[in-house]
Structures are given as structure tokens and as C-alpha cells.
Write a structure and sequence with these properties.
The protein is of the alpha+beta class. The protein has helices at 3-9, 15-23, 115-122, 144-149, 186-192, 224-232; strands at residues 27-29, 46-48, 51-52, 60-65, 96-97, 105-112, 130-136, 166-171, 174-179, 198-206, 209-210, 219-221. Bound molecules: uracil (URA).
Length: 233
């Protein structure tokens, strides 16, 4: 791919902007030499303003989403894209969230520009376990784990029962729930079906990928071999 197209697709600016910037010597190699508009290049060797260039298409980002941010590009309030470099919004292909977390849910959220990877992660066939830490408004009744494990719970306005889910009791008002599906507001609706209310919700893990090392609002790129090992092995 021509350099100008590559940089424009990575969101660094319009083709006109990046042409001007390359002419001004803004793109260099790791050995310090300047890269010209028509030079051959290897992606890993390129530095933009002395920083490694962003990954090419096929990126997977892991974000520790704080509460108060929506998984949308259009919401007038705070959106998860606000937590990433501004140029990530202009990438082509676009970076999409892998499923969604509610505005008031925190924790593990992935974003990718790789449609096939996104599909592999969210496909019901993948049955990837997603782990949620739940705080409740009322004490647990005691029968929730059995109810969720039965695979018979039918949520309001749904026609198929939920797949069996595993609930561990932490204490009277805290539980850890592992789901293999991701229906709309699923955790909140499951506890609502038991007469309870979720006060706070945090996704701590998907497959074997967790948030180690990431404070709320922080993100990192997940290398492809790590994604394969922790999501699909
Ligand atoms: N279940 C919910 O209710 N909300 C989320 O954000 C994720 C799972």
C-alpha cells in the first residue's frame, strides 16, 4: 500500500495532510533516516514523530472501560473512543467495539477493525465465557445459582431460554456470574428476574483475557498470538 494511503487509513490525517507531513520529514525509520513519499517500507520500521506507527489493519484493543462511557460513536455524552488517541476514530476500516457494555458497566471491552475476528469472538458458537462481578441492592435469596444453571430462565420479551450460567456467591450482596452468551442487558435482567437489582457491574474476564495491568480508562494492543491463546485455545 502506498504510504499516503496507509497513513490516511490509520487516521493520521487526510491524504493531503499526510503528503505534506511526509514531505516535511515527519516519517522516519528506526535508524533515523527520513522516509520519502514513494520509498519502500516495512510497517514495523516506521516512526511517526519519533513514535512507532500504529498497528496496521487487524488490530485488537483491550480497554478497561470506566463507568459513564457509552460504546457508541454518536452519543452526545462521553464515549469509549474518547479514551483512545483521537486519530483512532478516523481509521479505515473502522474500529468497532466487540459487543457492548452498558454505560454504567465497567471493565473488559475489546475493539477491533477486523470483522472476522469480531465475528469469531461474539459468535454464539464460540461460547466464550464472560465473567461479571456483580453488586446487588438486596441480599441473594439463595436459589439464584440453581435457577441460572438450569438453562430454563426465560427473560421478559424473549422467546428462547438463557443458556446455563454459573453463579458463585461472594457474600450476601456480591456474586460472580459467568455467561457464554451476551443478550441485551443480560446480567441486569437476570437479577431483575429474581426480584433483585444490580447496583454495580464489572466485566473482569473474557475467555482467559483479563485486565491485569490496566487501570480504569487504560488500554493496550493485544498481540495476535496472545489473542489466539487467550480467546480461542
Ligand atoms: N449485562 C448487562 O446487563 N450489562 C452489561 O453491560 C453487560 C452484561
Amino acid at each position: 500500500m502506498k504510504l499516503v494511503k496507509l497513513l490516511a487509513n490509520l487516521g493520521y490525517g487526510s491524504r493531503k495532510d499526510v503528503t505534506r507531513l511526509i514531505r516535511n520529514g515527519w516519517l522516519t525509520r528506526r535508524d533515523g533516516s527520513t522516509v520519502g513519499l514513494d520509498d519502500a517500507y516495512t510497517h514495523e520500521d516506521l516512526l511517526v514523530d519519533d513514535e512507532p506507527i500504529d498497528p496496521a489493519q487487524g488490530v485488537l484493543i483491550l480497554l478497561n472501560k470506566p463507568i459513564g462511557y457509552t460504546c457508541s460513536t454518536k452519543d452526545p455524552g462521553r464515549v469509549v473512543y474518547d479514551l483512545l488517541p483521537e486519530r483512532f476514530r478516523y481509521r479505515n476500516p473502522v474500529l468497532s467495539t466487540v459487543g457492548r457494555l452498558d454505560r454504567d458497566t465497567s471493565g473488559l471491552l475489546m475493539l477491533t477493525d477486523d470483522g472476522q475476528l469480531l465475528h469469531r469472538i461474539i459468535s454464539p458458537k464460540a461460547e466464550l465465557p464472560k465473567v461479571y462481578e456483580v453488586e446487588l441492592a438486596e441480599d441473594l435469596r439463595g436459589d439464584e445459582a440453581a435457577l441460572f444453571a438450569a438453562g430454563t430462565l426465560l427473560l421478559e420479551s424473549e422467546t428462547t431460554p438463557l443458556a446455563p450460567a454459573v453463579m458463585e456467591t461472594i457474600d450476601a450482596r456480591h456474586a460472580r456470574l459467568t455467561l457464554i452468551e451476551g443478550r441485551y442487558h443480560q446480567v441486569r435482567r437476570m437479577f431483575a428476574a429474581t426480584g433483585n437489582r444490580v447496583l454495580s457491574l464489572h466485566r473482569s474476564r473474557t475467555g482467559n483475557l483479563d485486565l491485569s495491568g490496566l487501570e480504569p480508562g487504560q488500554w493496550r494492543i493485544v498481540p495476535r498470538d496472545e489473542a489466539e491463546a487467550k480467546l480461542f485455545a
